[in-house]
């Protein structure tokens, strides 16, 4: 059964490229949401295997969305990977302290995004050759 | 970091062997589809740049330019334009600074913006 991944990002192009990458390279099923609030609802309804969550979004940003996901019993155990263009040291420490499963950086390589996510989540993909 | 799950999967190997070419084709299609968005972001940076050249940038233009540069820095490398991401990051950092400092660096911003336009145009 293919993995089901929820991508939460306010930018259409990032969502489209990340979804295409995960579907094409890894064969995962991808759900998308364009805001933190919408993402929380989709996570509650769809129970994805993991969430790829943008950090900088208008309204509820990535870290706030993550904390809301952790508050709900329905979504508290869904692993979350943050996706960010911010690479400064203080940001990295702040993100790591949240308790997310990993932090990936934009711009990402569409050929290796699934592999990076798998490594962060401890998922093993046999025969994966980007 | 929390501990993830450890599960072995057997993906379709035939699909994977073709995924490089498939990804390239799909990326190109998404580039074309999203090109109007990229152009809008360039316009926002151009407005900020033009105002700086004239000696003053209003807060709205600065903020819009910074946001547009941030978004471009996050996507251009994914489309195979790493130089575009680097230039966008420089523009974002400059526009994130105080207005006076930005005004003093208008020439630098202009150079970066012109190169960014050329990088994006070269990919069409």
Structure explained in plain terms:
The complex is a heterodimer of chains A (130) and B (124). Chain A is an alpha/beta fold. Chain A contains five helices and six strands; from the N terminus they run βαβαβαβαβαβ. In chain A, helix 2 (36-46) runs parallel beside helix 3 (62-71). The mean pLDDT of chain A is 92. Chain B is mainly α and 124 residues long. In chain B, 77% of the residues lie in helices and 2% in strands. Chain B is built from five helices and one strand. Chain B is elongated and about 50 Å long. At the A-B interface, helix 1 and strand 6 of A face strand 1, helix 1, helix 2 and helix 3 of B.
Q: How many β-strands of chain A, per DSSP? A: 6
Architecture (CATH level 2) name of chain A: 3-Layer(aba) Sandwich
Question: From the alpha-carbon coordinates, what is the Rg of chain B to the nearest angstrom?
Answer: 19 Å
Here the CATH topology of chain B equals Four Helix Bundle (Hemerythrin (Met), subunit A)
Global shape of chain B: elongated
DSSP strand content of chain B: under 5%
Low-confidence stretches of chain A: none
Counting copies of identical and different chains, the oligomeric state is heterodimer
What is the helix tally of chain B?
5
Label the structural class of chain A. alpha/beta
| Overall geometry of chain A | globular
Largest interchain contact: A-B, 40 and 39 residues
- Tally the structural domains of chain B: 1
Helix content of chain A: 40-55%
State the separation between the terminal residues of chain A, measured CA to CA: 21 Å
Q: Considering DSSP H and I runs of 4 or more, what fraction of the residues of chain B is helical?
A: over 70%
């Amino acid at each position: 059964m293919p993995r089901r991944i929820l991508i939460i990002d306010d930018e259409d192009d990032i969502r489209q490229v990340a979804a295409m990458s995960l579907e094409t390279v890894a064969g995962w099923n991808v759900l998308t949401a364009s805001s933190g609030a919408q993402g929380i609802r989709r996570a509650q309804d769809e129970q994805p295997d993991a969430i790829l969550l943008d950090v900088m979004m208008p309204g509820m940003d990535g870290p706030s969305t993550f904390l809301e996901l952790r508050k709900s019993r329905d979504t508290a155990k869904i692993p979350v990977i943050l996706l960010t263009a911010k690479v400064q040291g203080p940001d990295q420490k702040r993100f790591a302290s949240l308790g997310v499963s990993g932090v990936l950086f934009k711009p990402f390589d569409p050929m290796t995004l699934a592999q990076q996510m798998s490594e962060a989540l401890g998922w093993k993909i046999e025969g994966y050759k980007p | 970091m929390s501990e993830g799950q450890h599960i072995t999967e057997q993906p379709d190997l035939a699909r994977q062997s073709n995924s490089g070419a498939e990804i390239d084709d799909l990326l190109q299609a998404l580039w074309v589809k999203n090109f109007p968005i990229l152009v809008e972001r360039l316009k926002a940076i151009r407005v900020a740049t033009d105002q700086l050249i004239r000696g003053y940038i209003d807060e709205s233009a600065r903020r819009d330019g910074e946001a547009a540069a941030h978004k471009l820095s996050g996507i251009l490398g994914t489309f195979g334009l790493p130089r575009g991401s680097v230039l966008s990051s420089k523009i974002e950092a400059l526009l994130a600074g105080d207005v006076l400092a930005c005004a003093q660096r208008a020439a630098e911003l202009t150079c970066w913006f012109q190169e960014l336009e050329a990088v994006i145009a070269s990919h069409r």
